[in-house]
Design brief:
Layout: H1 3-46, E1 55-58, E2 62-69, E3 73-78, E4 83-88, E5 97-99
Antiparallel strand pairs: 1-2, 1-5, 2-3, 3-4
């Protein structure tokens, strides 16, 4: 037997014997990521820190309105560009969202 045929047989043997392990590992990692995103979305959704129609500032400069927030993503309306911005909920902690308190009023100049 030549070397190519032996390698082919070896790969087929490994895929047949251990391919199911690879498939289960891939499915488990995918399922873990989906569950993690869903839990982060639920925590944002259930918490009362941010609600639909709240005006918040991204990084203290960009004024946006929360249009809707779901289990996996949140939709913002950006006042500067008059466009909508969709962010996955697991990325929200990286945005540094700031919310103006009602008793403090809106002190930013860009109304």
């Amino acid at each position: 037997m030549d070397l190519d045929y032996q390698i082919e047989l070896f790969v087929k043997h490994l895929a047949g014997d251990y391919g199911w392990m690879l498939l289960i590992a891939f499915a488990a990692l995918t399922f873990k990521n989906i569950i993690q995103r869903l839990v982060e979305g639920v925590m944002f959704f259930v918490g009362s820190d941010y609600n639909a129609d709240d005006i918040v500032y991204i990084n203290g400069t960009k004024k946006v309105r929360i249009i809707r927030h779901g289990f996996t993503k949140t939709t913002f309306y950006v006042y500067d560009t008059k466009r909508k911005l969709i962010i996955r909920n697991d990325k929200l902690p990286d945005l540094m969202l700031e919310k103006t308190l009602p008793q403090n009023g809106d002190s930013h100049e860009d109304h």
